[in-house]
Design brief:
Elements (H helix, E strand, L loop, with lengths): L12 E3 L4 E2 H15 L8 E5 L9 E3 L11 E5 L6 E5 L3 H9 L2 E6 L12 E7 L5 H18 L4 E4 L5 E6 L6 H18 L4 E2 L11 E4 L26 E2 L24 H9 L14
Parallel strand pairs: 11-12
Antiparallel strand pairs: 1-2, 3-4, 3-7, 5-6, 8-10, 8-12, 9-10, 9-13
Length: 289
Amino acid sequence: MTPTVEVTNPDKLLWPALEITKRRYVDYLDAVHERMLPWLRDRPLSLVRAPDGVTGERYYQKDTPKYAPSWIKTVTIPAARRDVAYTVCNDAATLAWLGNQAALEFHPAPVRRDAIERPDTLTVDIDPPDDAFEAAVEVALLVLEVTDDLGLRTLVKTTGGKGLHIVAPIQRRVSADDLRHAANRLTEIVQERRPDLVTAEFRKADRGGKVMLDPSRNSTGATVVAPYSPRARDEATVSFPVVPNELKATDPAAFTVATVPNLLDRNGPKAWREAERESPQRIPRALLP
């Protein structure tokens, strides 16, 4: 029997500038759940919660609250101080319950609960300087040239912020250390092609106005915002799937909680839907130790 989720305080404004209430937000999650759930399923989930909306306090939540309903699934992972019971979101009811808890951002891990030590995605995180999305697009196209040369199939999405993510579903054959090595090597190859444009420096002050590729998204304990997840920003922007040949015309601000339900038939969502049916791939040997 499918659990019923009651939306409490449905008129509470979560994004006041856009008059998006909690009821409207839960409706958004229902509208995108078929597209979003495959990228959350069986993954330890970290959340950004904002009980009073984006103008109030926000906090990062890993441990599932003790008051969660008994039907909420979890996976317990040992941590430095104590074990953490991460929420696992496998169905629309869990997604709605999390929305009712004002979980505004969904950050799944690159692993699934039946093989926590074996990652199944490699992510290239492209972080441009402020107000430089065109530079992010230039670097994304460069990364795609490299992955094409390596024979690595990839997907692209906006981050809901100023950057882009390039994601490659992979077979669960390598360790987290090997995945990090692969991400580092891929970053090095991209840097070698355009050292004037690309950096791996984490500190903004050390980047010299270049676009950063962040391989740390592939480390143990790392997470990446899910496709279709909103961001806890005033504009209610969403991390949205796109395709390479549309990147130059992409405006990341166009993808919001208000607009995305009407954009699910675009090429980006179709490409990610098709990828769900494809077999995972091996990481190219050129990227491994």
